[in-house]
Design goal:
By secondary structure, the protein is mainly alpha-helical. The protein is 67% helix and 0% strand. The protein has helices spanning 6-25, 33-37, 44-66, 70-100, 105-110, 112-116, 149-167, 171-184, 186-195, 207-225, 234-253, 260-278, 294-312, 319-346. The mean pLDDT is 94.
Length: 353
């Protein structure tokens, strides 16, 4: 067993996403309670996703460098994502849909929209995130609004792989250069892309979201590539937090700098804090002793939350109740996904060398 806290941090990230999604799904808007009391400093669901990308950047860089062949690297990424995703999509179509559709089962299963939902498995848009007669009366009719980030995750994998193929031993310098360019020009592109969303042709991803998630991934990768020069110590972690809070005070409280400076500083601070805590020795090192359920939590939570809202009605259930009921239902699903889908698949990771 690897003595680190990454299993716990991924679990925490998934919990943050579930909590953060509870508000917009129930029709309360995107401003969740934690984000509200921190005055926008901690957008819960988004921070959860950024923690995922930070950890992923570090571990994927490590996997790429340690893989004997590029095909082996691709295979390991495939079996980590696809088996769990395929089963989750089938579960959504065969269980969630029939339990919540307002149509008859014969109408539901004969609809082209039901079959079309399987396109979600290809990860990249375009696909229609809806099922016939499912969740149409809820504040949002989306079936699984968490899966869209997988395309950005896979794109980051592809970026590192292509960089390794082209630049080989110089990859870490290329990644550092790209990070410095994107991070250094943040105040030029962030608002422009936020106000005027631009899509990437062929893969149909949003440039702004790719830069946003990609920066966390890049810093995570850099923390691996330059691991021999980076120190993880509580004093450095405290200093990173202090810098982050300073950016908050200068922007939100004093108005000296742009509010975007909080995000700009967070691109560096959050990944460093995440990896630093990840390598801290603690009882949480053994959190994943019974399995890594974070991926299962992430891919099952959204449709389960929607199902709960459908059963109870958005106006009849509080956010704490919804969050608690979601965990009660999703935790067993996530464990089953790990035990009977993801873990067996991962045992085949060395099938291609």
């Amino acid at each position: 067993m690897h003595l680190n806290n990454f299993n716990f941090l991924r679990f925490l990230a998934a919990i943050l996403v579930i909590f953060g999604h509870s508000y917009p799904l129930a029709g309360y808007g995107n401003l969740d309670y934690i984000q509200e009391i921190t005055e926008g400093l901690f957008p819960t669901a988004h921070i959860g996703v950024c923690i995922f990308f930070s950890i992923s950047g570090y571990l994927i860089a490590k996997s790429l460098i340690s893989s004997k062949t590029y095909l082996s690297f691709l295979w390991k990424r495939f079996i980590r994502i696809m088996p769990g995703l395929i089963v989750a999509v089938l579960f959504t179509v065969l269980v969630i849909g029939p339990l919540s559709t307002t149509l008859s089962l014969s109408q539901y299963f004969s609809s082209r929209e039901t079959l079309a939902y399987l396109k979600v498995i290809k990860i990249f848009p375009h696909y229609n995130d809806s099922l016939p007669g499912v969740f149409k009366t809820l504040p949002t009719s989306m079936v699984n609004g968490s899966l869209w980030t997988l395309a950005y995750e896979v794109t980051c994998y592809a970026f590192l792989l292509v960089g390794q193929i082209i630049f080989r031993k110089h990859l870490k310098w290329v990644v550092l250069s790209i990070f410095l360019v994107l991070w250094g020009s943040f105040f030029f592109w962030h608002d422009t892309l936020a106000d005027n969303p631009a899509m990437i042709r062929i893969i149909h991803l949003n440039w702004g979201a790719l830069f946003d998630f990609g920066l966390y991934f890049l810093v995570g990768s850099l923390l691996y590539f330059y691991r021999d020069f980076i120190s993880y110590h509580w004093a450095w972690l405290a200093a990173a937090f202090a810098i982050f809070m300073l950016s908050y005070i200068l922007s939100s409280k004093l108005g000296i700098t742009s509010l975007n400076s909080i995000v700009w500083v967070r691109y560096v601070v959050l990944p460093y804090a995440t990896i630093s805590i990840g390598f801290t020795k603690s009882p949480l090192n053994y959190f994943g002793k019974f399995g890594d359920i974070s991926y299962g939590l992430y891919i099952y939570a959204f449709p389960v939350q929607q199902l709960i809202l459908f059963w109870y009605g958005p106006e009849k259930i509080s956010i704490p109740e919804m969050f608690l009921y979601s965990l009660v239902l999703v935790l067993p699903l996530a464990w089953l996904s790990w035990k009977y889908v993801e873990e067996p698949a991962l045992k085949r990771k060395d099938a291609i060398k």
